[in-house]
Amino acid sequence: MTATDASEASDLDLVRRAQAGDAEAFGELVERNRRAVFRAALAALGSPAEADDVAQEAFVTAFRKLGGFRGESAFRTWMLAITWRKAIDRRTSMTRWLRQTVTQVDFGEDAPDIMESMPARSRSQEDELASAELHRTLRRLIGTLPKKLRDALLLAGSGEYSYEQIGEMLGSPVGTVKWRVSEARKMLKQKLTALGYTSSAAGALAARTRS
Amino acid sequence: MRSDLELDDAIDRAVRDMMSADARAGFRNRVLARLEDAVPSTGWGPSARYARSGQGASWFTLPRLAAAMSVLAVAIAVAALLRTNRAQAPAPAPVVAQTQPAAPQEVRPIVQAPAASPKPTTELAQRRDKSRIKFPPKGIVAAASVADPEATTPAAQPDPAAAAAGSELLIITPVPLVIAPLIIQPIVIPPIRPPR
Q1: Which domains does chain A show, CATH number per domain?
Q2: Which residue is closest to B9 within chain A, CA to CA?
């Protein structure tokens, strides 16, 4: 099978070929789902390095379990479910490790969060219009959201997944996912309002600078 | 609610920014390399999973083998212990109740002494001891106070042989203890097959 054939085939065809031992087919499945898998892990972990590692692990696990894939759901949905489980396991162990390491230190508001380590995208013109301070504040506030709300907000906000896929990943109905996203937004706005961001970002920044 | 919309927009931008990262270059190759590491040179695809079962089986079967070996060791130890106990236990000989005449006891004159009074050790104590002795009135002979061996005859002792003659001899026959030999059968572990 050539690379062209692989790129034109459906996910299910590629799965069948991979089940038969076609390396190229599985490589194509990796390529097609790489970004979705990586970003799901990133939403849970916040660290690109950890997300990269978990994404690789998820593909290896998927390969091992490929024999049991019956095609009842889309390969991507199945793959994302594996990824999410792995990412949550990693996050749990990371949180446990952090708690054990930093047990005596109370950082209060400035508590370190794995979301803080997320990389900033190279600034585009659109980004430059936004206040840098509001942006930083929002990143920090997103990191302080309850995990369930934060997961839903990041997964939905990434634009990578449908609500159905997010529901499959989180093991929650679509309605619950939507409510969590809405609740996360509401909490963020309340926090921003409490911090003085009641008008436009630039205006808020100016107000804060004056005060 | 312009400000609300602006905040919504700011949230969207922040979320997109946080989620805009991508896997490092060469992700596909790294995944395939991991798969090759996991699968020894037996080929590709899930079919290789079965060929890999030798490696996988070692992880699964080693603990099982270890458990089986320990069970076997315990069984052998118990069997050895039972055998040792059987060898050490003396074979119970038939017990015949026998009686023998008791050796004739030496007849000694009975001299009664106050058992409760300890022997006086000092002269004063001896005197005090004497003062406690109550002599019978004159004309009355107290046998207990007479220490005359010739005047005392040994009390008639019961003859054990005669006593035994009157009872039946009891023969106890032990029942032989039979221990069934312990048969240890090898544990058969079915080969592990990966889920299909």
Answers
A1: 1-104 (1.10.1740.10), 123-205 (1.10.10.10)
A2: A130
